[in-house]
Amino acid sequence: MSVNNKRASAILGSPFPKSTSEKIVELVFQRLRENSWETDVIDLSKIDAESLLIRNEDEKLDKVLKSVVQSDLIITASPTYRATYTGLLKVFLDLLPQESLSEKLVLPIQTGGSSDHSLTIEHGITPVMRSLGATVLTNTIYAWSSQFKEDGSPSPGIIELINNSVKELDFLLN
Question: Does any domain span residue 174?
């Protein structure tokens, strides 16, 4: 990838630390950093709930929102809850102004217990991101428990999904 000074922000929608979706984000970020990308992780579980829900003035939240809209690539990462992404992620996305992600690329990452909910990206997060003006990559990443080895490392299938997403990103930016 020949693009320099690009910025990627990952929005972690899991309420739990060290989630599977966070592990996948780190693998994507490793690939991006190899190509001079600046990366930023936004862990929504560390933002004050009252600020998210009631929209109290909060410097940290304002900084995070600004970081997202200034990124070239936004990664949404969430476990699957009730056949869609988490409410934590939804509440955050609702704070972004309409069209604030215009000319931004989005890579959705979602995890689940099985492949049963693999269409949740297409039916859940993709329409929301498009309503904010974003272009959603076609090579999204949905991974489930059996795609990870006993030691927690990703299977070759997950690595292939990551590689396909990074290749598409490279194509779109060059």
Answer: no
Q: Which residue has the tokens 């498009």?
A: 130
Q: Is the pLDDT of residue 56 over 80?
A: no
Question: What would the pLDDT profile of 74-120 be if each residue is shown by its tens digit?
Answer: 999 999 988 899 999 999 999 999 999 999 999 999 999 888 888 99
CATH of the domain at 50: 3.40.50.360
Domain with 164, as residue range(s), is 7-168
In a domain, 1, yes or no: no
Cα separation values, 15 from 135, 144, 162, Å:
26, 18, 23
CA distances from 122 to 21, 42, 156 (A): 17, 23, 23
pTM of the model: 0.93
User: In this structure, what is the dihedral angle of CA atoms 75, 129, 173, 5, given to the nearest 10 degrees?
Assistant: -50
